[in-house]
Every structure is written in structure tokens, then in C-alpha cells.
Amino acid sequence: MKILVFAHEFHVGGSQRNAVDLSAALRDIYGCDVVIFATPGPMVTVAEEKGLRFISAPDRKTIPSLAMMRALCEVVRRERPDLVHVWDWWQCVDAYYAVHLLKRIPMIVSDTLSDGLTRLLPKTLLTTFGTPEFVDQARAAGRQRVELLVPPVDVDANAPGGADPRPFRDQYNIEASDVTLVTVSRLAMKLKGESLRRTIDAVRVLGRDLRLRLVIVGDGNARNELERLAAEANTEIGRAAVILTGELLDPRPAYAAADIVVGMGGSALRGMAFGKPVIIVGGEGFSAPLTPQTAEAFYYRGIYGIGDGSPSNARLIADIRDLAESSDKLPMLGAFSRQFVVNHFALGKVCADLEKLCRAAVAEKRRPFLAAVDGLRTAALLQFGKLTPDSFRRLVKSRETRKASIANRRSEPHSTRPSSEEWGWRQSSPPRSLDR
């Protein structure tokens, strides 16, 4: 089976890393012939190191992009894939019309960058979401062709002993007595910025009493602001408590050097794979450690959360203090984190699920009339917005489903699951002690 992977711009990010890891696994485990097509970025080096063939796509100026469509059609004509696997809705718009409708090439789309259901995704396409919650919401909204594809983690490459932490600790003068917090993230204003600012603030508050070192790995448009906040915190504490390293294509030494990982999404999962205790952060002040009490909620809703909107940073400060002052409990929590990832997110398991979906998509009967009707529905949604990514972020989300998603994350979980009190999920109550 030959698969053309049409991915988002290849900067360093979770969606791009997932595409690379799964492409390599499909080739190595199942013998698939996989080619990646995307706008070039730093992750091209990672793909090439894994021996994957990469074809450059043009820069995107609009959605849909005629230039991207033309380039994609040429690649499909030349490569003759059995299947196109599209990552995220921007690429789906181009690929659906250019190669699925016109050339009748089977397609799968994986929607990983959305914070709600994307209305314009064609309903006839087999669509994967990264959390059981989004799968349930999609089915409740009338989408029948949805499947779960969780973020994959290479639990062999990302494992205790998988990287030597000593050169990294020596480079940044991290001492044995330091309690080292590590965050690996895009330094983006949106989605990531709030939690990064809160983490620096927590170290500023706690760093006077605890020997904390915060290492932030990544780059992005929030870097200047974060460097300013780090400098202010370091001046107040009187030592280099907050360090920004810049972007690392291989962040494994940073994970290996951590005592505690603070993060969200795939970055937090890779920290767990290294056997590290993890504090998961999110929007509107959310913070909670991964524990046996919170694990099922995080699996269902994703490695992220939405808090109560309080301007106070007390919750994250308390979570960091609890772990930093409980060094005897860190190995136990780290072992639980590792097992959580191995059980649910191991690359081999996720790849097996994807391979089955690919074969099903290739084998299914073509229904060109239904696909054309579905394309008209998507086109009707497209015509109401300016053809820029920012305007589509506002347009394509169903306001009702997004509000419902946010409300659901703040309220009781599904009735068939443990209550939020049992999960330790509600953000209005004080943080739970690790003894409970």
C-alpha cells in the first residue's frame, strides 16, 4: 500500500511529529510505501533522519489554495498513491477537491489542531480525532465515519535511559540539588502562552523557598515576552531559575534531565514516557497532575484542560509545590505515568489502528455522488469567510459544539464515567493532596 501523507507546515509541532512517527512505523512494521508532502520546515530534518521521502509543498496564502491544489495533483499524478492521509482541516480542504473528488483517490483526514468540531470537514470522509470525547461529540453531531486515533508516542525512543541527561544538565549548570521542571512547547501566544506565563510565575513565587529550575524548550512568537518574564523572575529570585534553551529537534535529553515535566498534549505524553511525574496545564488557569485519580479523565478528554477562568495562579503553584516537596513520591508517580502512556499511546498500538483504517479506506466502495454532495456542503461553508486561516478559525467551528465542549469540560463527565469529584477534576475546589 502506497500512502501519500499530506501534512501541515513542517515546523516543530505535535501534529508534524505524529505524522513523521506514524509514517515511519507504517513503513517499518507493515511495509507501506510512505511519502510526505508538506511545506518545508525544521521537521524535514527529522523525517529525513528516519529515512522518509519528503516532497516540498508551496507556502499557503489562502484556504483553499489553488497553488497547493496544483502541486498536490502533480504529486499524485507522479506518485500514484493508493491513499492520501491528510493531517488537519487546512490540508483537507485542498485535498478533498483536488484529488478525492476529481481523481477519486481514497482519503483519510486526521483532525488534531482543532479545539472543537470542525464543521466544514466533509462527512463522507473517514475522520479520526485524538480523544474519545471528540469522537463521541462527532457521533452525537451526526457524523458516522469517525474513529479514534490518539497521539502516538515512541515508547522505545522516549523511555527511562533513552537519552543521557548529563550533557544537558552540564550545559545549563543544573545541579544535583535542583528540582528541575522541564517544559517542551511551541512558544505560541495562543493556546500555549498562558500556561507558559503561569509556569514562570509559579517558579518566581516558589523559587525563593525551593531550589527550582525551570527549563523551557522551544521557540515561537511568545519568546520575547517569556524571556522578559524569565529575566524578571531571575532578578527577583537572585539566580538563574528560569532558562529558555530555544528549539531542539531532539528534546529527549531535556526530558531525561527533568524531575518534573509541565506541559500539555504530545509533549506531556513524551515526558510521561520518560517516567517523569507530569503536571498537565491548559487554558483559563487549568492545572492538574497525572495521578491514578485523574488519568481516566485525561485519556477521555485529552492531555489538556480548561479551568474556571480565575486570574489566580494558586492551583499551579500548589501543584508544583506538592511535587517538589514530595521527592519520595516522584518515582511512583513517574512509573505510573510511563505505564499510562504504554497502555494507551504506544506507537505500535496506534500504528496498528491506523493501518487497519488505511486498508478499510482503500477497500471501500466509491460513492462519487455522495462525495460530490458533501463537497457542495463544504463549499457552501467556505464561501462565507475570507480565505485566510485566521478568519476560518472563527468560521469553521460550530459555536454550539464548541460551547458545549467547554461547558462539558467544566461540568460533570459523562454519566457512565466516574464523577468529576472522583477524578479530582473540578477546578473550583482546592487541589487534592497526593496522599488522597
Strand segment tally: 13
CATH classification class of the largest domain: Alpha Beta
Main sheet: strand order: 3-2-1-4-5-6-7
Q: Which spans have pLDDT < 50 for at least 5 consecutive residues?
A: 385-404, 410-436
Number of domains: 2
Strand content: 5-15%
The largest sheet, given as strand count, sense and whether it forms a barrel, is: 7 strands, parallel
Instruction: Indicate the CATH architecture of the largest domain.
Output: 3-Layer(aba) Sandwich
Individual helix count: 18
- Derived from helix and strand composition plus strand pairing, the structural class reads alpha/beta
Helical coverage, percent range: 40-55%
CATH topology of the largest domain: Rossmann fold
Round the Cα radius of gyration to an integer and report it. Answer: 22 Å
Separation of the first and last Cα atoms: 50 Å
Characterize the overall form. elongated
The overall pLDDT, averaged over residues, is 86
Assigned CATH superfamily of the largest domain: Glycogen Phosphorylase B
